[in-house]
Structure formats: C-alpha cells, structure tokens
Amino acid sequence: MSKKYIIIILFILMLLRNDETIFSKYYDHITVIDNPAEIDVLVNKMYKLNSDYVPKNLSKIDTKYAYDDKYLIEEAKNSFEQLSKDAKINGYNIIVVSAYRDYNYQDKLYQKYVNEKGIVYADKCSARPGHSEHQTGLSIDVMGSNNDYNIFDKSKEFKWMKDNAHKYGFIMRYPKNKEYITGFKYEPWHYRYVGINTAKKIYKNNITLEEYKRRNWLIKYR
Question: What are phi and psi of 95, to 5 degrees?
C-alpha cells in the first residue's frame, strides 16, 4: 500500500474517533505558522503566529464603520466597509469594535482573563498570545444597534450578518455547537475574512474553517 493511501486511512480513522478526544488537548502540539499572510490561514489553539508578526498592508477602517482606530489588511477592510455600507442601506447598523491586535495586546488581554477568572475560563473565551486571529488583521468583532457586542445575536443586525457576511468574504468564526472543533465558545460577534469564494463554501456546507482546511487536505492527498 502506498504512503498516500496510508495517510488517507489514518486521517479517516482520526475523523471517526470521538471528536471530544480529537480536540481535547489544545496547546499540546503547537505548529508555528509559516504562511501567516495567506487569506485563509488557520490560526487556532494548535497553530501559532510568531510574536513579531505584523501584517504588511494594514489599513484603517473608516470611522463610519468602526469605533476609534481599527485596522485590517486592506482587502478585508474594503470588504467590511462595503458590507457595513450595504447593511445600512437595508436599515442595519454593523460596526467594528475590535480588529487587528498585536501579540503584546493579546498577551495582556489573556492574562487579564486568567487573573480575574482563572486559566480554564480564559482558554474558553480568549486566545493565548500568538494564537489569536486578530493578529492576522483578518478578524473583527462587531456590534449592532443594541450597542453591546456580547449580545450581538440579540440585535436585529445578527440575522442579516449571519445570512450575508459570506457574500463579502466573512464567516462567523466560532459558531454554536462547534466548540469542540474550534476550541472556543460560541461568539456570534466574531467574524473572519477568508475571501468570497472560501466564505461561500464554508457557509453553504455549514462548516468551520478547521473543517474546511481538513477537507482540502484530504482532497489534496487523494
């Protein structure tokens, strides 16, 4: 049997195992990302960015669409501004409250959660430094007209965003009932830019970025 087919069989057996087992040991075997500038780069509890990584083409989001000084890579920024503009035409107000965050900022934020509520809680709701998508300049936290991003799913904007974000290249990164895959609790306010084609595939199949990347990996080694 060829090495290619052995790899495929092992991969399928892994998927057939209990998912709780597959994804339970986060931060145990970490891979440093060597392609951080790719639009669909996977950053999570197993894949880490270098501490000095800063996206080269960060661009400030127009304050009509974000609070204060918020930055994304230019492609993601342009797409979100169009999204927010189109949402407003339809009577919705979708504003960025958090975007690019550097390694040191994430370190302080994570330690704040650890100090206040302990490491178990912190790991459910905050990425460790280097493991945050916000460092890629591709992720945003959004707020609706109820002015509280923590309850974005209670706002009238939520359904519009959920149904339309993929048309602009964004996906809800941490959906409900996918916590055992993403490693993070449900975050209806956290969206990730992956490009329009990829976002449409993820939306159509109701999968996470992790699942999308695994499927592509399996197809590659067929």
Answer: -125, 140
Please tell me which residue in 75, 187, 210, 211 is annotated as part of the active site. Answer: 187
Nearest partner of 138 among 35, 66, 38, judged by Cα: 38
Fold of 3-220: Muramoyl-pentapeptide Carboxypeptidase; domain 2 (3.30.1380)
pTM of the complete model: 0.87
What is the token pair recorded at 106?
């994430």
Catalytic-residue membership of 211: no
Domain segments of the chain: what residues?
A: 3-220
pLDDT digits (tens, 9 = 90+) for 92-122: 999 999 999 999 999 999 999 999 999 999 9
